[in-house]
Structures are given as C-alpha cells and as structure tokens.
Amino acid sequence: MLDKNGIAKRIAKEVKEGYYVNLGIGIPTLVANYVNKNLSVEFQSENGVLGMGPFPYDEDVDADIINAGKQTITTLPGASFFDSAMSFSMIRGKHVDLTILGAMEVSENGDIANWKIPGKMVKGMGGAMDLVASAENIIVAMMHTNKKGESKLLKSCSLPLTGVGCVKKIVTNLAVLEVTKYGFKLLERAPGVSVQKIKDSTEGNLIIDSEIQEMKIS
Amino acid sequence: MINKKVLNVKSALEGIEDNMTIMLGGFGLCGIPEKSIDELVKLKVKGLTCISNNAGVDDFGLGLLLKDHQIKKMISSYVGENNEFERQMLSGELEVDLLPQGTIAELCRASQAGFPAIYTPAGFGTEVAKGKESREFNGKMYILEYAFKADFSIVKAWKGDEAGNLIFKGTARNFNPNMCGAATITVAEVEELYPVGVLDPNEIHIPGIFIQRIFKGNDYEKRIEQRTITQR
User: Fold this and answer.
1) Which of A45, A195, A218, B161 is least enclosed by beta carbons within 10 angstroms?
2) A51-57 contacts: CB < 8 A, separation 24 or more?
3) Across the interface, do B108 and A85 touch by the CB < 8 Å criterion?
4) pLDDT in tens, A193-209
C-alpha cells in the first residue's frame, strides 16, 4: 500500500518532457518533488504563476509570491506572472498539458466530486471546475477509500459534481486505474496489495482483463 | 495627463453606500486592498455584495467585514480557510454565489471589456449550471454567464503613477488587473505612487484609463496564510 508520497511518486512518472503541469492542493502538490530532474517541465499555479519552484529559504519568503494553496513559493529561471483571466486562458484554452488534482469521489464514467458536502462542508470549487471542464489529461490523486473505509471509486458520485466525464486516470494508495467506457480498468496494483483487496475497495465497475503487475516506483 | 491621485483612502472611497456591489482584488490574502478594506470597516457600510475570489480569513481581509455582518452577499470561488464565512453560509445568514475561479476572472474581464456575457465549459453538468442557459459549440457544452455589474472596483497594485497607470508584483497581480475598469468607479491603492514620467510605459500592466482614483497606502501588513519554507 502507498502513502501520500508514494502516490505522488507514481504520478510523477506520468509527467513527460515538455509538459506544462497544473498541480492541485494536497497530494498533487507533492508530485513536483518526484518529477525526473532531467525533464524540462514547468508547473503552473492558477493564481498566476508559471515556472514555480520549491519553497523559499526562510529569509527569502515573499508574501507576494504564493501558489494556489496560499503557500509561499519561489520561481525558477524562465518563470512568469500573469493575471487570473490569463491564467484560466492557459487552462480553458488547453495550453496546460496535464492536470493533477484530488477528489472525494470519482465515478466509473469519469465524473468527479471534490468541492462540497451538502450541509457539512463547503470549500468552494476554486479553479477545479475550470480545470476539469477543459483539461484533456486529468489524473486524480486520492486514497482509494474514505476515513470510514468506504470506496471513493463509485458507480455514480453521491456528492455534488465538479465536472462530468472528465477523469482519465486515477492513482490511489492501492492501484492505478484508467477510466474507460465500461468502467475502471485496473492497470497496476500498489506494492503488497492484492487484486482482491482492490476489488473489495472499489464500488464502481472494475475491469480486470489481464495479469495485473505491481507498480514500479523508484 | 489626467490626474487620478486622491489624498487618502477616505477620499478614494467617497460615494460608497449601503447595498452597493463592490469588486475587490486579491487571491487569499495576497494582493488584497488592505487599506480600503480597513476603511470599509470604519465606514460601517452594510448590505454589501462583494465580488472577490475569497473572503479573507477570520480576522483579516474581507473576514473583517463578514464579522461585522456588513456583507449581504459574496460572489466567490473559494471559502476555504475562513470559518466565519463557512458558518454564515451554512446557516443562511450570508447569501453566497459560488462560481468557478476562471469564470469569475473572465466575468470581470468581460465587464472591463464591454462584453455582456460569456460562454464557459466550467460547471456544465454541475449545480453551478442550474437555471443557466447552456449551448453546444463544436460538440462541447458551455453555460452562459453574465458579466458583473458593480458600483466600485477596489484593487491593489505595487507601483502606480498619478495618471493611474499600474504595475503589479508577483502573484499579488491575480484578479486585480481584471477588475480595473470593470465597475463604475475603480479605486487603486498602491505601495509606491510616482509622479507621471517615472514609470516606463513599456512596463505598465494596466493603463490609467481604467482607473478613476489612486492613492498610496502605508505600512502594508501582507499577512501570509501558509508560510512554507525550505530548510537550509
């Protein structure tokens, strides 16, 4: 089974040469730490920066330079700042190659819910609805089950949706899955996790049509 | 040169009344018009509709106006870390229109640029689309969102000159440029205010034509929400 950093490490392998990548809050933010340093990749944060770097040293902290998670950051050579409308032009206009975000629920047809629990919690959608409505390459990073042990990979989402039919791939603490016309296709299993365990933890239709290899992360 | 300079925040906000609609720049606490928000608290104006991506935190930024129940309605994309905002919303004390961040940005820009509405794919198939017109373009569904109508737009910039030209810094830029000229009156507060001729026209982000009033604010707090650092 993977921890949050393990999920981030596995997703980092999906980042390819020349990609502009938007990372959501939470596990997705960790992905930046594991991307192959030999690749030319730029991270976009929707509040208005492209070419995001690591967190600053204490003395370099600048309140005017943050990411979408409101964390203080640095920029790398070649970086740029821009306004919110331009930021979402990059996103809506499909100039960003890969979007990685967290979710509370994903359904077998690729719907995603991650912004509201009616009557209990309303965080707001932030930029997530814009991202999922336009991005062509969306990977969800999340735990396979919620705190009560219930599956987060469902036949249909029970929570208010963020977007419809948009998720392409999901990486959880248990598995890597692809969203297909017929449901969740199991691609890889996490180290030490059995196919049976993944079956038991997945409420939506799970497709297993070959021998499932253990994922390689290093 | 048309001089937009006013002496202080008080003159800058002259004419703000109860029940007005006000746009405020900023993302989280980054690039918010701190001085104008403090003045709105002092003015005790009530029944405001605020268009702002966030609503500050409990004791800073727009959170100060929420605490005093000066805001009737918020149009935002993210409630996030503001407990009072979430509480007032869930209890129904506060009317809240949650819109996708990119939709808010583009609706500001539309108001600025003279477009009555936009079509966006964001929110199609979700409760954001409820009651809104939708339309298919090239096989994809979009929803119609109407541009904002606001009385005041209040933005924060780094440098400005007396003609109202603005330069923003880092990610404190965010919604600020998009809100300039998007309301009847745009007020800009800046950290550094120069006579005309000092700022290089090549480096201006927002031309003064979009600004009606500009003033220099002092002692910006610039509170940080998440101070994340790399250890040496």
Assistant:
1) A218
2) A51/A75, A51/A76, A51/A77, A51/A78, A51/A79, A51/A80, A52/A76, A52/A79, A53/A79, A54/B230, A55/B228, A55/B229, A55/B230, A56/B229, A56/B230, A57/B229, A57/B230, A57/B232
3) yes
4) 999 999 999 999 999 99
Radius of gyration, alpha carbons of chain A:
17
Query: Among all chains, which residue has been given the structure tokens 């933890």?
Result: A201
**Residue A189: strand pairing partners:** A175, A214
Closest to B164 in 3D by CA, of B183, B190, B184: B190
Which tokens hold the place of B111? 């108001």
- By the 8 A CB rule, do B99 and B77 touch? yes
Q: How many alpha carbons lie under 13 Å from residue B117 in its C-beta half-sphere?
A: 9
Give B41: exposed, middle or buried? Use CB within 10 Å, 0-12, 13-18, 19+: middle
Strand B213-216 with B183-194, pairing: parallel
Buried b (16+ CB within 10 A) or exposed e, A112-127: bbbbbeeeeebbbbbb
Alpha carbons within 13 angstroms on the beta-carbon side of residue B232 total 4
Nearest to A130 among B31, B80, B100 (CB): B100
Confidence at residue A75, expressed as pLDDT on a 0 to 100 scale: 97
pTM of the model: 0.96
Residue A122 confidence (pLDDT): 84
Q: Of the candidates B215, B226, B50, which has an alpha carbon nearest to the alpha carbon of residue B148? A: B50
Q: How far is B54 from chain A (nearest CA, A)?
A: 9
Which H or E run includes A22? strand A20-23
A122 in contact with chain B, both atoms CB, cutoff 8 A: yes
Contact B229/A61, CB-based, under 8 Å? yes
Per the CB < 8 A criterion, the answer to whether B178 and B110 are in contact is: no
Kindly state the helix (H) or strand (E) to which residue B22 belongs, with its residue range.
strand B21-24
Instruction: Give residue B160's pLDDT band: very low, low, confident or very high (50, 70, 90).
Output: very high
Q: Do residues A173 and A141 lie in contact, with contact meaning Cβ atoms separated by under 8 Å?
A: no
Euclidean distance between the first and the last CA atom of chain A, given in angstroms as a whole number: 15
> How many Cα atoms occupy the beta-carbon half-sphere of B210 within 13 Å?
25
Which of A29, A64, A104 is the best residue to mutate to test the B interface, defined by the most B CB atoms within 10 Å of its own CB? A64
ipTM over 0.95: yes
pLDDT at B80 over 80: no
